[in-house]
Amino acid sequence: GCSGPEAERRAERTRHLRAGSGGSGPAPRRCRQTAAAGLGWAGLGWAGLGAAGSASPAPLRPTAAAMTDNIPLQPVRQKKRMDSKHRGGCCECLRCCGRREPRPRTVWLGHPEKREQRYPRNVINNQKYNFFTFLPGVLFNQFKYFFNLYFLLLACSQFVVEMRLGALYTYWVPLGFVLAVTVIREAAEEIRCYMRDKEVNSQIYSKLTARGGLSFSTARAFMLTFLDGETDWKLRLPVSCTQRLPTASDLLQIRSYVYAEEPNIDIHNFVGTFTREDSDPPVNESLSIENTLWASTVIASGTVVGVVLYTGRELRSVMNTSNPRSKIGLFDLEVNCLTKILFGALVVVSLVMVALQHFAGRWYLQIIRFLLLFSNIIPISLRVNLDMGKIVYSWVIRRDSKIPGTVVRSSTIPEQLGRISYLLTDKTGTLTQNEMVFKRLHLGTVAYGLDSMDEVQSHIFSIYTQQAQEPPAVKGLSVATKVRRTMSSRVHEAVKAIALCHNVTPVYESNGVTDQAEAERHYEDSCRVYQASSPDEVALVQWTESVGLTLVGRDQSSVQLRSPGGHILNFTILQIFPFTYESKRMGIIVRDESTGEITFYMKGADVVMAGIVQYNDWLEEECGNMAREGLRVLVVAKKSLTEEQYQDFEARYVQAKLSVHDRSLKVATVIESLEMEMELLCLTGVEDQLQTDVRPTLETLRNAGIKVWMLTGDKLETATCTAKNAHLVTRTQDIHIFRLVTNRGEAHLELNAFRRKHDCALVISGDSLEVCLKYYEYEFMELACQCPAVVCCRCAPTQKAQIVRLLQERTGKLTCAVGDGGNDVSMIQEADCGVGVEGKEGKQASLAADFSITQFKHLGRLLMVHGRNSYKRSAALSQFVIHRSLCISTMQAVFSSVFYFASVPLYQGFLIIGYSTIYTMFPVFSLVLDKDVKSEVAMLYPELYKDLLKGRPLSYKTFLIWVLISIYQGSIIMYGALLLFESEFVHIVAISFTSLILTELLMVALTIQTWHWLMIVAELLSLSCYIASLVFLHEFIDVYFIATLSFLWKVTVITLVSCLPLYVLKYLRRRFSPPSYSKLTS
């Protein structure tokens, strides 16, 4: 982030190695990385708790591309990543921001001069414009739409004398006002964005220098990230050969380097090696995802020293996030379409007028004059009224006490909320709380629920008391005692397996009475906190503690359990096989220190464990029963190993891990050699608690005609359980689980099998989805859109956005995406309407969204009440503004026809501006407060929302009705004024203009369905303004004439004839063909 040779060298040193200042205490603190991509650091060492780093902080700008809790990272789209200009980087011609194609890299510790390639600058830039492009960019975005471009050309034409019809201000003031509002709004958003970026890019970081010393302690760390959408702690391990160095500064003295794969979007895998050349023999150590830290991570405790591998646009988080797009609502596009129709009408009317003059003289100039004369057919006030209406809707949403904490971040699309056909939601943290509760232990012949856990506790207690009191076996035991001892040993083996097979680490914190060191030494229960890579893991370990077998200590090489009697059981960890999305299982090999026995424990999903455990007749049935209850099921098994078996396995395993090519395949093959004929111990059932009122909210959305799709990065089994538990899939519906397909043929067969099922929910994995979309995109989307519900599991962030995009393209319907994590940002930005939930995964999703809510249940009210009201109000407002303009244009057409098709304006100067502003603006705009039913009724009858999906409030039919009303009223007013005026032309202006104002005020009253006190004030205020202004309008209106009785009765008659028939028609329609909502309000 610095310029100049010296600054570049300093920055490069920072790139290669950095030490955070030491942190004392276990409080989580953000790993402020200059790195990473989902992957930023290769962890070289952890400083122990309480260690103080003496590395001096460098006064450098931050080169952090991380997402903080307050800053959404909104980088370039993946498919354009290498084509577009580097964001926040140098200009393309200088080529100083790194090469275009991502490549593997070799990073030397402490030797920046050996760098083989340049890397992107590590800054974030979320602004749409810069200082020079702001004004041109904003103006271009305004005038690229037909509506605004038309008014610009109209205003510019008034500089030509032959085309001028009135004062310049009558055209330029309204246009200038519209543009000023837009520019101010965009400037405010850009300034806010700039300040947020500056805050992140100005952070100070520490770097490791040769002067700084930092003692190492061999350890491991837990880090919290939100890139994968899960709010769990991830276990990370340091490079083992660096742990033997006395201080961190020695890292700069050894001759070593890290080889890392090219940047890619996979957040779950990493391939690299750490090589030390100055040792004898040279040390090669494989690096995997376990040795890396993602960007925007929180370290649970201690200090991390790492080497930076990826920066800037090469971050995994950047690659998995799409650029924010300026969303234009469907409603705005429909209004834009109507204005094009009005423009066509304007051209036709102008041509007809000139044709009736037989194209005499300079007829082409006459056409232009008529185009200007009838320009009111397209109302410039329409855009202003709609934009101000959106601001009111946003204010009403924020002030709603029923959905506290709701924030409107994009005030341009509130009407979208009223027309959603597909809702795409995340699972973890959105539908669920991500808080696990242990519910069931099943041993095949017996099951223990929450009400019988005391029996498990008694079994465990009896095992350890018997071991302590009865070393030799006692002869002559009764049959009942033997059976009980057999059951106790089965329960004990199951509980011990659950207590050992996990990646949970107990961490001790000071509680004010006992300090941290003492608590750790004595395994103080009140100071212990469990950290793990999954909330399921913590729930299992907490349960084993509740039944008597407590996890009290763990490091890289050992585990300590405490028995009910307080005895410490020591186990040495020989190998750990972490859970992966491909394997769907985790394993651990431990040696019991007291007996020397080596045991391989494994737990995983029933679909994979069924082929690993010994034959049994109850596993499949009981897994199905527990899954139907909405529980997350894990199968636990074990296998005893001899010393020879283990040594043979270890040799093959180490060799496979050092392989650079096909490493994961070779490692999996070696592990699978152990995974045969394992002894089935038990099943565990854990429930992921749902968010408050998720079920009734989903039911409301379904009744409103909205189809719900759940897109999650979680396991297939877990996603299916949650779908059932949340009633996303009803109990009467079948579920078709799309089997894993890898090629075109398999996809074809599976799609045919799915086609034969009806009213069936679909569950599909991300890998199968990718294959289907590659070969059978149209067929798959056609089938999926017919499903009542769809669950996509193991979805990458880019896949979520792809699904949203395909739904939009294939159905043409509006989509709404709901999520709470950084992995949901792409989906939220791609959807027509993005809703972020502020939760445990931070604020990334809520900051990137158009609307931010605090709980999923608020979504129902946001759509059913506010979305519905916003759409209906804007529809009424837009059509009324068009009616107002068509009325005066019809009067102008009648006036010109009567006076030999002359291109002479009927009203001039302030009359034409005042008509659409102070005389009618307030009553017309008060329509944004109108509502057809109370909010409670809208929530009670979500079927009312379904009516809006067809777009009936604003359609060609309703538009045509308003056009006919406008033509009728404009003609009646103008012909009436022409028939009833007596002597002077100025009387025509007085009679027709007054009748026009009164007609508009009465039409607003006719349109309103529920009166608000502000509506009454607006009507009276507008009428008062007109009456008061008559004193100043003597140039256009005869003040003495309007005080006569003749003026009053003529205006009254004309107004009644123009409005009364419409009142009668409205009454008859409500009487004989009432709308659906009127049946609920009566």
From TrEMBL:
Keyword Ion transport: no
Sites where the protein binds ATP: D426, K427, T428, E537, F579, K603, R632, T712, G713, D714, R794, K800, N823, D824
Positions of the P-type ATPase N-terminal domain: 111-171
Region (Disordered): 1-31
Chain segments annotated as coiled-coil in the UniProt record: none
Subcellular location: Golgi apparatus, trans-Golgi network membrane; Membrane
NCBIfam families reported in the protein's UniProt record: ATPase-Plipid, ATPase_P-type
Protein name, per record: Phospholipid-transporting ATPase
Organism: Catharus ustulatus (Russet-backed thrush)
UniProt lineage: Eukaryota, Metazoa, Chordata, Craniata, Vertebrata
